[in-house]
Amino acid sequence: MVVFKVVRVETTPIDGQKPGTSGLRKKVKVFIQPHYLENFVQSTFNALTTEKVRGATLVVSGDGRYYSKEAIQIITKMAAANGVRRVWVGQNGLLSTPAVSAVIRERVGVDGSRASGAFILTASHNPGGPHEDFGIKYNMENGGPAPEGITDKIYENTKTIKEYFIAEDLPDVDISTTGVTSFGGPEGKFDVEVFDSASDYVKLMKSIFDFELIRKLISSPKFTFWSLCKTYFCGRAWCTRKLITELHSQDFGGGHPDPNLTYAKELVARMGLGKSNPQDEVPEFGAAADGDADRNMILGKRFFVTPSDSVAIIAANAVQAIPYFSAGLKGVARSMPTSAALDVVAKHLNLKFFEVPTGWKFFGNLMDAGLCSVCGEESFGTGSDHIREKDGIWAVLAWLSILAHKNKENFGGEKLVTVEDIVHQHWATYGRHYYTRYDYENVDAGAAKALMAYLVKLQSSLSEVNKIVKGVGSDVAKVVDADEFEYKDPVDGSISKHQGIRYLFEDGSRLVFRLSGTGSEGATIRLYIEQYEKDPSKTGRDSQEALAPLVEVALKLSKMQEFTGRSAPTVIT
């Protein structure tokens, strides 16, 4: 057995190590600076209680992006030096973010050990590669992201750090082969276990969904499904192995891994939503996930399902279509910028409903308290209380379950109930929330802050606001309220302020402006535009056409081009 020594390394604070709601994300060139990663990891260890570190079991894995393998070895050596008892690593260093949450919550080691937390190496939906993004975040023993109390401590520690500890002579562990490698150190035995990246997550999914019914749907000659994983749907109940082990690359094939209409070009074209007609027959169902598989996009034949509609439709059909929810839903929740489609479902089904700030940790609090079963964000994140992260693969399976349920008496029929049919049925019952999001990426941070400050100041004069609204057209309702969203957590009583600027219209329409913290440089301004229509004869309009007057109001109200210099958004969804 190799015996290692603990080395104390002197260091100094490095600017810019404040973790956001999704962890610390920077360009790779920033992370590979001397001591940069080490400072953040040690600051994290120092922010945790002793029992969460010494003698503990930690998961260290990620989405396989550039610099992941080197980071895994560094974190493993630092874990050993800080008294961690064992580290679990997904084979080849690969675990989707949902799978990490599942492993923390579900996996039991051969010696009865359970993980108390995880370092997840991902920049989520942001590009990977030597000139692109890297990220790291810490998840707690419930499988969810570290709360603000912990991330604030991490940040304070990064500003005062003077030393970190590392087992420099610990050999790199072969993470390509499953098995346990044991070492000896000053505090005793230290193990690194490399395990199958898919098995724990697959087991969990099998406990949630009726895979036999899904298999019947996929086997139907009338059902065509465009996905990288179709052979795995057919060959075994479901396996994410294709997604997370065979098709990964350090730069995601040179593409942008964000699953939306702008970046998922190949899927969008294949589903008949591109600028040119596809050469082959358009499939009935298509789906995409991002680099770490926590986000998702759902498409039907020539039809896009908005994330806001998606979570509402899943909630409306969950009890009937998904065995896991057969006893009923505890409640539902959405992030504030997400459309109110879920609100209408909750009211109709008499469910508890919560509107929370952006950030999955807010959903986690509700789930841990037994208040929420299904939740979602407009930013292509959907999930449930089976884990404490958004889960793109779960969302795909939820949609397949709904399709299978709607068609279970008709697999051999002439025409199956389609994705578009299900959405239109939903609108007929609950009304339609026309919705779009404009993203202005990599905006000068100073300009972005100035725009937001201007919008806050403008809220003090609704008469001035309504002059701008009236100048656009008489068909736009007047603004009756404006505020900055503030949230008091019903579980722990914590208050989150400045969570987005809202302009609320008399007819229920909304404009929301928010700065996003998910990019690695610059600022992203997100503009959300929503209009509710309950007249069934008016729910079939093109979304951009229906929202055009409100979009014009938003751009004039915010002086978007004046502040940012942008004549158009980077992404429209």
From TrEMBL:
One of its GO terms (cellular component) is cytosol. The keyword Nucleus does not apply. Its EC number is 5.4.2.2. It catalyses: alpha-D-glucose 1-phosphate = alpha-D-glucose 6-phosphate; O-phospho-L-seryl-[protein] + alpha-D-glucose 1-phosphate = alpha-D-glucose 1,6-bisphosphate + L-seryl-[protein]; alpha-D-glucose 1,6-bisphosphate + L-seryl-[protein] = O-phospho-L-seryl-[protein] + alpha-D-glucose 6-phosphate. Residues 17-164, 308-408 form the Alpha-D-phosphohexomutase alpha/beta/alpha domain. InterPro entries: A-D-PHexomutase_a/b/a-I, A-D-PHexomutase_a/b/a-I/II/III, A-D-PHexomutase_a/b/a-III, A-D-PHexomutase_C_sf, A-D-PHexomutase_CS, Alpha-D-phosphohexomutase_SF, PGM. It comes from the Eukaryota. GO terms for biological process: glucose metabolic process. Its cofactor is Mg(2+). Keywords: Carbohydrate metabolism, Glucose metabolism, Isomerase, Magnesium, Metal-binding. One of its GO terms (molecular function) is magnesium ion binding. Monomer. Belongs to the phosphohexose mutase family. NCBIfam families: PRK07564.1-1. Catalyzes the reversible isomerization of alpha-D-glucose 1-phosphate to alpha-D-glucose 6-phosphate. The mechanism proceeds via the intermediate compound alpha-D-glucose 1,6-bisphosphate. This enzyme participates in both the breakdown and synthesis of glucose. This is phosphoglucomutase (alpha-D-glucose-1,6-bisphosphate-dependent).
